[in-house]
Amino acid sequence: MPRGSTNKGPPSDDFGWKWGEAVDGQRSRVRCTFCDRVITGGITRFKEHLAAKKGNVASCYQVSSHIRKEVAEQAENL
Length: 78
Ligand SMILES: [Zn+2]
Known about the structure:
Number of helices: 2
Number of strands: 3
Distance between the termini: 25 Å
Helix content: 25-40%
Largest sheet: 3 strands, antiparallel
Bound molecules: zinc ion
Order of helices and strands: EEEHH
Shape: globular
Strand order of the largest sheet: 1-2-3
Strand content: 15-25%
């Protein structure tokens, strides 16, 4: 789907937006499509939530282990 000049769609090209959506159009607040928790701190923090990275954010308890692994691997390559 081509990206036009509207504000629809993900706020950036980051792959993390596959599983999150900006709350009220603010990309610093990301709602998890798995557990409905709102992660503040942006898409990077949200990916830590999905990947269950310890330290900064609560882990997602509903994401599948397959996606958790995918996010963790892709996040390492950034
Ligand atoms: Zn979650």
